[in-house]
Specification:
Helices cover 56% and strands 15% of the residues. It is built from 23 helices and 20 strands. Strands 6-7-8-3-9-10 form a six-stranded mixed β-sheet. Strand 9 and strand 10 form a beta hairpin. Bound molecules: adenosine-5'-triphosphate. Adenosine-5'-triphosphate (ATP) binds next to helix 11. It is found in: Cell membrane. Its main location: membrane.
Length: 713
């Protein structure tokens, strides 16, 4: 709590003049509030009892003057403090937001979004509320001190009694203060957890609906809320107890001093005016104590809020500019990974001894199965993370010796799902180069081949793209993102699965645009779709964090039994119509599926005609675990996740399948329930074969039935 006071005081001290004026104004108000009850003594003892009318007039005039001065100064103080208080609060908002911009990527994987938002929504607001109450807090505390001093001036024995009794009012805060603070801190943490749950739930609505998880999530939320209720009731009760015990203390104190004061006045040790003034001051003292106890919960909440805000402000970015770092002059020669070892956590090893060189002006592609480390390479190239061992070098300079700003200003990046901000198309493109003129934005849009579309919109470049760019199609969003990446004319262009989430026709069109744009630059592309990497100068095939193979497309195809060759065979053999609605599969390709491997070409040719094409959007459930199976699926393009229920009935991801993978082959032979749920992660195009068609065909070749039965066992 002391550190909270220290932080608040240092915030005020940044505005010394305003703080001094504020304190001066408070002193005038304080003088008035103390003088008012004391005036009874002067009016009764000096004017009414001795019948001194002139004294009465003077005293009343002084009272009116001080009252007027207090009102005017009070108004001035309100105005000034409103400005000062909001400035201090907005300083905290600014510091916190600035901190978020500086923290490294790992922080965002460690801390939940809801927790961060809650530091703005709950914690900063409780600090804000308390800061606005600071004048009352100061008036109450200083008033308490001044009133007690005046009591001594009136009758020191009685005042001593009051002071000895004063701790009675403080027993509550002393005994329950820490408990109330702990309860308030836990409550704030739980508020942050709830914010995280709600935020995640809103984003996950398609999955929740697809899996029918509404009741499960309502039950889980009920558990959370039950915990919240307990914490909230504990926190409120601690505050009530502090309030109640303080009021009881004040009541006792008043009773004691009024009894003793009356006895003293009865025996002539105290004038009637002093007794009245004493009682009036005691009453105002009890108001002050009540105000302090009313402020105590706000103070406690602000203290725990400040603790959480400080925690965030004290976070240090794991990747930051080194003091000796210099600016990367225009990228000229090559990017190098030298024996790089990296893990997201100390226990993990996600890249192992990676050494490679990407010369300027070349096209490097990283391919490999899901989880093989492709995006991790990009994370190190962008210096979102630092390697544990080894180094990443640009033009021979270790990335740690280069300022982050100069490094990233040379790079343009397009992600799989590009985030567009809720503003105009013009602003979204300009984010790539904030100082760009309108002409530069239009030029970038032309290069990304989206200018004509933008001009066809009623508001043209001023069109609002909606939340996350939701008013544009996936392909249009990607083109805006491409324009945003190239507007800065980057020396290095990174494509992180830039076209994987698009339908075939859009992907083909955007690939044409990219091909043109990448001809003159250093391009680093990450993709699981090998056709997108075919023209790369060097393809790196990653497997479990290591480079398993590297070379040009031709060289890799020549490696017999190589991973690339196998993946290539798996992903080719399908011919997709231009609109993406019809896929032809070759007999040769069908032969690669174990279930068809013993069939001859003419038979496979027949089967190939019975395959239907099915397209699904992202986030759709294709198959539910337990449903009866009647189809064999082949993924022509796209990614799906395979989910299985564990013993608690919760769906767990067991695999990710992509282009060329297949599932459900048993369904061609038997009607048994599906053993897993299949959910799309990107738009997916399948070819499917119905059991009834297959069974009809296979009846014509009886010996195959027995072979297949044997295989399926
Ligand atoms: N932030 C993270 N914290 C911990 N582990 C992570 C993190 N990001 C990725 N990983 C793990 O690192 C490994 C490599 O992940 P990476 O994203 O580089 O794979 P990828 O080849 O790009 O896969 P995909 O094609 O599915 O995107 C995976 O095992 C993944 O689970």
């Amino acid at each position: 709590m002391l550190s909270f006071v220290r932080h608040i005081v240092s915030s005020f001290l940044q505005y010394k003049l305003q703080t001094t004026l504020l304190l001066a104004a408070l002193l005038v108000e304080l003088a008035y509030e103390t003088f008012m009850p004391l005036s009874f003594k002067f009016i009764i003892d000096m004017a009414i009892v001795p019948h001194q009318y002139s004294y009465l007039v003077v005293i009343l005039c002084i009272m009116v003057f001080i009252a007027l001065a207090s009102v005017i100064i009070g108004l001035y103080r309100d105005r000034m403090f409103a400005g000062l208080g909001s400035r201090i609060v907005t300083d905290y908002y600014r510091q916190l937001f600035g901190k978020l911009q500086n923290l490294s990527t790992d922080f965002y994987h460690r801390i939940n979004g809801g927790d961060i938002v809650s530091r703005f929504n709950n914690d900063l607001i409780s600090i804000d509320t308390f800061i606005m109450l600071i004048p009352y807090a100061l008036l109450s505390i200083l008033g308490l001190i001044l009133n007690v001093t005046v009591l001594f001036f009136l009758q020191w024995q009685l005042a001593l009694l009051a002071v000895i009794g004063l701790p009675l009012c403080l027993i509550g805060p002393k005994l329950f203060g820490q408990k109330a603070y702990d309860a308030s801190y836990m409550l704030k943490e739980e508020q942050a957890n709830i914010a995280t749950v709600v935020q995640e739930n809103v984003s996950a609505q398609p999955v929740i609906k697809a899996f029918g998880l509404q009741q499960l999530f309502i039950r889980r939320f009920d558990d959370r809320i039950a915990n919240y209720r307990t914490l909230s009731s504990r926190s409120s009760f601690s505050n009530f107890v502090i309030d109640r015990t303080t009021n009881m203390g004040t009541m006792l104190l008043n009773l004691m001093t009024i009894c003793a004061g009356s006895v003293l006045a009865f025996f002539g040790f105290l004038s009637v005016g002093s007794l009245l003034a004493f009682s009036a001051i005691l009453i105002s003292l009890s108001y002050l104590v009540a105000a302090i106890t009313w402020l105590a919960p706000q103070f406690i909440q602000a203290t725990s809020g400040m603790q959480r805000v400080r925690e965030l402000l004290d976070e240090q970015p794991s990747v930051a500019d080194n003091e000796m770092a210099s600016s990367l002059q225009h990228f000229e020669r090559e990017i190098e990974f030298r024996n790089v070892i990296f893990g997201y956590t100390p226990e993990q090893r996600n890249l192992n001894s990676i050494s490679l060189t990407i010369p300027k002006g070349t096209y490097a592609a990283f391919v490999g199965a899901s989880g093989s480390g492709k995006s991790t390479i990009i994370n190190l190239l962008m210096r979102f993370y630092d390697p544990q061992q080894g180094s990443v070098l640009y033009d021979g300079t270790n990335i740690r010796e280069i300022t982050l700003q100069s490094l990233r200003s040379q790079i343009g990046i397009v992600f799989q799902e590009s985030f567009l901000f809720r503003s105009s198309i013009m602003e979204n493109i300009r984010l790539g180069k904030p100082e760009a003129s309108d002409e530069e934005v239009i030029h970038a849009a032309r290069s990304a081949e989206i200018h004509d579309f933008i001009m066809s919109l009623p508001d043209g470049y001023e069109t609002d793209v909606g939340e996350r760019g939701g008013r544009l199609s996936g392909g249009q969003r990607q083109r805006v993102a491409i324009a945003r990446a190239i507007i800065r004319n980057p020396a290095i262009l990174i494509l992180d699965e830039a076209t994987s989430a698009l339908d075939p026709a859009t992907e083909a069109a955007i690939n044409m645009t990219l091909k043109r744009l990448t001809a003159t630059r250093t391009v680093i592309s990450v993709t699981h779709r090998l056709a997108s990497a075919e023209h790369a100068d060097c393809i790196y095939v990653l497997h479990q964090g290591e480079i398993a193979e590297l070379g040009s497309h031709q060289q890799l195809l020549e490696l017999s039994g190589g991973r690339y060759k196998q993946s290539w065979q798996k992903q080719t053999g399908f011919e997709i119509s231009e609109d993406g609605y019809h896929v032809e599969v070759s007999a040769e390709r069908l032969k690669l599926f174990p279930i068809f491997s013993d069939m001859d070409d003419s038979f496979l040719q027949k089967i190939s005609h019975f395959f239907a094409t099915e397209s699904y959007a992202k986030d759709r459930t294709i198959i539910h675990e337990g449903d009866s199976g009647d189809k064999f699926y082949v993924i022509v393009r796209g990614k799906v996740e395979v989910l299985k229920k564990d013993e608690f009935g919760e769906s767990k991801r067991v695999a990710i399948l992509s282009d060329g993978d297949f599932f459900g082959e048993v369904a061609l032979l038997h009607n048994i329930p599906r053993t897993a749920t299949i959910h799309t992660q990107t738009p997916v195009v399948f070819i499917t074969l119905q059991r009834e068609f297959f069974q009809d065909l296979i009846k014509q070749v009886p010996h195959l039935t027995s072979i297949m039965e044997a295989r399926s066992k």
